[in-house]
Structures are given as structure tokens and as C-alpha cells.
Write a structure and sequence with these properties.
alpha/beta, TIM Barrel, two-stranded antiparallel ribbon, globular, 290 residues
Length: 290
């Protein structure tokens, strides 16, 4: 649901990290999904939430505490096509940050090349929030970004997974699916729903993020998310990424504990080799190979 600026509720801020997780993330871990917000930058006039200001320095403090080495900034819907906050953050640590922006399909070629040099590696298509690109942009965007080695990143509703499956053969670049397509993992047929993600991952260069369990299940401990993660890890560990989803925007009633989330991530991933593949290898290859 998209609201006017006057109605868009202020979401909760992230909880301070009060303790270190029992085990840190492995060296080289890449956080493939986080956002930053700056004071005084205009927000979209129609949006789904109002964020708290949380800067790159705030994320870097969190990253250092849990042993994240590199990160991928994702353009939040509340900034629409204004990528200035993200680009400023990229400029602050070009070696360790990459970005996913929101661009109009008719953006000038020189602008794509400029953004590539700044560390941008993809375009986000977001149909869940006002301010995102619609599906009608996909074909044109794919053709524009394929030569750059960029990807399309989708934040969609579960009902749109079949539409993505139909579009994949015509997309000429890697595809990344945010938050497991927002599947309802508390449903009785959750395993069958996860199987739809597995079918998408059969397509070359299609990836999914193990991220934001609190958006997919309301059961304490996120056991349904753990089951989904293990189902996917059993079939497609080479196509999975991890993201913190920090600072956990668009939450209004309860905020997760970041130390607990890291500990649960260790539990979901299990084997150290698999954990290294998901947390380090897959992401470094996709985002940091150049």
C-alpha cells in the first residue's frame, strides 16, 4: 500500500546492537542488501513508510561488530529515482561497496557508464512499494544493462513469481530476487511455495536472497524460514545470497535483534563450506568480480 507523505507512518528504528553474536560471520562476508538514509534529503511524496536517518557510518559500525567485510547498497523506494544518498555512500568506500539503483529505462547511456564506474552493478524493479519501477520496464532495462554486466533485482509480491518465470528467457542479464519473493512461509503449503523459487533458480544466472525472515513468517525463532532456507540450500547453494536487510525498514510493531539474526543465520546455513559459499563466494563473484 502506498500512502501520501502525510500518512506514511514512521517505521521503527533498528535496535542498538547490545551484544556480539555467539559466532561472527566468516571473513569476507558480503551483506548483499542494506539501505542508508540521510538527513535533509527529500523523500518521495507518495511512499509506504517514513524511515529514520541511518547513515553509512551506522551500517559500518554494525558490519564491524558482526564481521561483514563488504556490502551492497540497495536504493530504497522512499527515494524514488533520486540515487544521490546511495551514490554518496559508494564514494565513501569504493573498494568495499557496490550499489543497486533505480533508473528510468530511457536513461542516457553515458549515465549508465558513469554509474558503473562509481560501483553500481544493477537496477531494482520494485512492485511492492510506490517509487519503484514496474514490470513494463524489464525488457528495455535488460537490454540496456546487459553489456555492463549489471543485474536486475526484483522486489515483488508472491503472485508475481510466475510472471518473472515467464520473463526470464527474455532477460539478458543476471536476476536477483529479494527476500524469497515475500513468500508466506506460515502457510500450510510453504514447501510447495518454496519450490517455485527452486524452479526459478534452475534458470542460469538467477539468484535469491536469504534475507528478512521477519517479513515472511510471524513465528518466533523464524523456524519456517529455516525450513525454507534448508530446502533451497539442498538444491541450489550456488544461487543463494545473504543480506541483513539493515536497518529493517517498514516495520512498525516489533524490531528484530541483529545478534539473534546472525546466530540464526549460522543455524540455517549449517555446514561451514555451504556458509562460506552463500555468505562470501557467491556474492563476491556476482558483485565484486570487478
Amino acid at each position: 500500500m502506498s500512502l501520501t507523505a502525510a500518512d506514511a507512518p514512521l517505521c521503527l528504528p533498528p535496535r542498538p546492537l547490545s551484544r556480539a553474536p555467539r559466532a561472527l560471520l566468516p571473513d569476507g562476508t558480503v551483506d548483499t542488501h542494506f539501505h542508508v538514509f540521510a538527513d535533509g534529503v527529500p523523500l518521495a511524496s507518495r511512499r509506504s513508510y517514513t524511515p529514520h536517518v541511518r547513515t553509512l557510518a551506522d551500517w559500518q559500525a554494525y558490519a564491524a561488530a558482526v564481521n561483514i567485510a563488504q556490502g551492497v547498497l540497495v536504493q530504497p523506494s522512499v527515494y524514488g529515482f533520486d540515487n544521490s544518498v546511495l551514490l554518496e555512500a559508494l564514494a565513501a568506500d569504493r573498494a568495499n561497496l557496490r550499489g543497486i539503483v533505480v533508473l528510468h529505462p530511457e536513461t542516457d547511456k553515458a549515465e549508465f557508464q558513469r554509474l558503473d564506474a562509481l560501483g553500481v552493478r544493477g537496477v531494482r524493479v520494485n512492485t511492492r512499494n510506490k517509487g519503484g519501477l514496474p514490470f513494463t520496464s524489464i525488457t528495455a532495462l535488460s537490454a540496456r544493462i546487459a553489456d555492463l554486466g549489471w543485474m536486475l533485482q526484483f522486489q515483488v509480491r508472491p503472485a508475481q513469481l510466475e510472471e518473472i518465470a515467464a520473463l526470464l528467457p527474455a532477460i539478458a542479464c543476471p536476476v536477483v530476487l529479494d527476500h524469497l519473493g515475500f513468500l508466506d512461509l506460515d502457510a500450510a503449503d510453504a514447501s510447495a511455495r518454496v519450490a517455485k523459487i527452486q524452479q526459478l533458480l534452475e534458470t542460469p544466472d538467477c539468484y535469491a536472497k536469504l534475507s528478512a525472515p521477519y517479513r515472511l513468517t510471524h513465528v518466533a525463532g523464524y523456524s519456517a524460514f529455516a525450513d525454507a532456507a534448508r530446502q533451497l540450500l539442498a538444491s541450489h547453494p550456488e544461487r543463494l545470497l545473504w543480506g541483513s536487510d539493515w536497518p529493517h525498514t517498514e516495520l512498525f510493531d516489533q524490531m528484530p535483534d541483529d545478534a539473534e539474526l546472525i546466530e540464526l543465520t549460522h543455524d540455517w546455513l549449517g555446514d561451514a563450506g555451504v556458509a562460506h559459499q552463500v555468505l562470501v563466494t557467491n556474492a563476491q563473484t556476482l558483485f565484486f568480480s570487478r
